[in-house]
Structures are given as C-alpha cells and as structure tokens.
C-alpha cells in the first residue's frame, strides 16, 4: 500500500512540476515575445509635476529620444499634486507592461516617504528602477546686497543676525532637508519659511524678505547672471559641469559635504525584465548623445546612467539618509 501511495504521489509531483515548468516556459516565452514587439503602441511617461519644470522638461527630452530609438510614440502625461505623490502613486499601481513609465524626482522617491504621513506607494516595493537620467546640485543663494561672498561669511553673518538664524525660503520638503544637512555641516542656523515653489522663493530673495535660498539651478540662474542674486556654493561633492565657476560647499571650508538631487526613470514593479532591458539599452545610448548632454547642461544637470542596481541602492540609502536628517531636525511628517 505504501508503495502504491508513493508511486501515486510521485506521479502527482511529476505532473505538478511539469505543469509549473510549462507555465514558466510560457511566461518566459510571453516575456521574450513582449520584448521583441515592445513597444507596439504608445507609451505614457508620467511626470508628477506641472508642465515647465525641470522634471517635465527632462521627461520631454527623454521621450523624444526614446521615440527615435524605439520607433514608437512616447507621450508625457502630467499628473501634478502632493509633491509628485499623485503621479508616482498612479504609476506604482499601473499595469506592469512597460506602457506606463515614470520620470521622478529624487524627492518623490526618497523624501515623500519620510515627510508625508500617508502615500499610496512604496518606492522600493512598488517601482522598478530603469535608469538615473540626470543629477544636479542645489545652489546656496543669497541676495547680491547681502554682505557675504562665501559660506564662512554667511555663517558669521547668521551668528550676528536676529536669534542667530537666517530666514531660509523653502521651495519643497526636499530642499528643506538639504538645507538641514548644510546646517549640520556648517553651523549655519535656518528659520524655514515655506513658499509655493522655487519662483516665489526667488522673488522673496530679490525683495530681501529672506536671506538665503537653497534652490535648483534653473530657478536662480537668470538672476545670478544678471547680478541680482549671488550663488555661494553648489551642494554636490564636485563642481557642476553646468556651473563650473561656483565652488562646492566643501571648497567653502566644510569638507566631505555632498548632496545631489537627481531624476530617474521608473516602471511599475513586475514589468517584464526583457522590456526593462530594452528600455535600459535605449537609455544607455541616449545618455551618451552629445545633443542631449548639452541640453542637460543647459538645465544645470549632469547626465546619469542606466545602472538600475546602483539606482535601486541609492533609493534605499537616500531614504535612510533623509529619515536621519528629518529626525535630527525634529521635522515631522505632514
């Protein structure tokens, strides 16, 4: 009886294994077929911000290049709101077939999980890294009338200012956290004042309503060139190719400081690997395109790469970093 049972059980296991193998083979075949034919219709690239910003401009540049490489339409769709959480959540829940992608700021992936009480996505569990599209520094900026030429002078000026603090214009929670890392590194103390984006912060700087802004380069470049604002430092560890004349925070006397803002191309988790590989291959070529590199530099960005594993690690590491900064600064999610 035992032998009959064993033979029956073995036969059942063989049948189950054969079925599993057949299913796996079918899935692999379908994935390979998907890669062969992908994309066979238009691909949506979602941006979690309104048109006209750095991420939107970059998404449109990348979309145009993807269309050239893959011979299919790539259409940018803006879904602004909640510091890009609406658009990011939309892509995280989309069908994982390669036809809905996300161009995301680093803040949407690594700051929102720290600074927002409830979001509809987990950037690690719900999204798949494709490529780092570009990175850029924030720029520590002051009104040209402020009597400081570098960060050491700004630190001393702050100590002599009311309550030992400088009024800092906050354009986003990401920028506020970067300002806090600067505070930790330099001893410069900030009184954070929230504004609805970089534009209003620039206006406040021009009106000398505030003393400092830690801002994206696209927002301040025209006013710096016009001599109305002064750029004291870039937050990256090395000088930006787009702004070679602006020294780093480290060069201002605070060694080891390095904070980079970046933008990435992401897909919903579960997107077939052959489709992801095809996208990564295309983006690898695109990020070497001289015309694109020039356009990135005009935005104050340096080109990224399609090392998705490194990007995945960076997301995890940045979440941990910003969590530590927020905790140290006693900033609570809202």
From TrEMBL:
Pfam families: TctC. Keywords: Receptor, Signal. Residues 1-34 form the signal peptide. InterPro entries: BUG, Bug_dom1. Belongs to the UPF0065 (bug) family. This is Putative Bug-like extracytoplasmic solute binding receptor, TTT family. The lineage of its organism: Bacteria, Pseudomonadati, Pseudomonadota, Betaproteobacteria, Burkholderiales.
């Amino acid at each position: 009886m035992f032998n009959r049972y064993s033979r029956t059980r073995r036969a059942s296991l063989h049948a189950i294994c054969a079925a599993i193998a057949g299913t796996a083979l079918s899935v692999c075949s379908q994935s390979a077929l998907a890669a062969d034919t992908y994309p066979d219709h238009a691909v949506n690239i979602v941006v979690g911000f309104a048109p006209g910003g750095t991420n939107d401009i970059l998404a449109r540049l990348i979309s145009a290049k993807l269309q050239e490489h893959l011979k299919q339409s790539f259409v940018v769709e803006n879904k602004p709101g909640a510091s890009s959480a609406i658009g990011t959540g939309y892509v995280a829940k989309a069908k994982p077939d390669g036809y809905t992608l996300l161009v995301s700021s680093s803040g949407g992936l690594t700051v929102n999980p720290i600074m927002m009480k409830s979001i509809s996505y987990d950037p690690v569990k719900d999204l798949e890294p494709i490529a780092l599209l570009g990175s850029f520094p924030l720029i520590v900026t002051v009104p040209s009338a402020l009597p400081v030429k570098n960060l050491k002078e700004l630190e001393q000026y702050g100590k002599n200012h009311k309550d030992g603090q400088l009024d800092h214009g906050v354009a986003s929670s990401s920028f506020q956290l970067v300002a806090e890392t600067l505070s930790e590194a330099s001893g410069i103390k900030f009184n954070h004042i929230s504004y609805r984006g970089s534009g209003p912060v620039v206006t406040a700087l021009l009106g000398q309503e505030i003393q400092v802004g830690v801002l994206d380069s696209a927002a301040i470049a025209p006013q710096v060139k016009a001599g109305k604002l002064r750029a004291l430092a870039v937050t990256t560890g090395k000088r930006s190719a787009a702004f070679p004349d602006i020294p780093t925070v480290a060069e201002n006397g605070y060694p080891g400081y390095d904070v980079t803002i970046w933008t990435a191309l992401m897909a919903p988790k579960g997107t077939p690997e052959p489709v992801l590989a095809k996208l990564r291959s295309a983006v690898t070529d695109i990020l070497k395109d001289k015309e694109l590199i020039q356009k990135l530099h005009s935005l104050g960005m340096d080109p990224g790469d399609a090392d998705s594993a490194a990007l995945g690690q960076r997301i995890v590491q940045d979440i941990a970093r910003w969590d530590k900064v927020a905790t140290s600064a006693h900033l609570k999610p809202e």
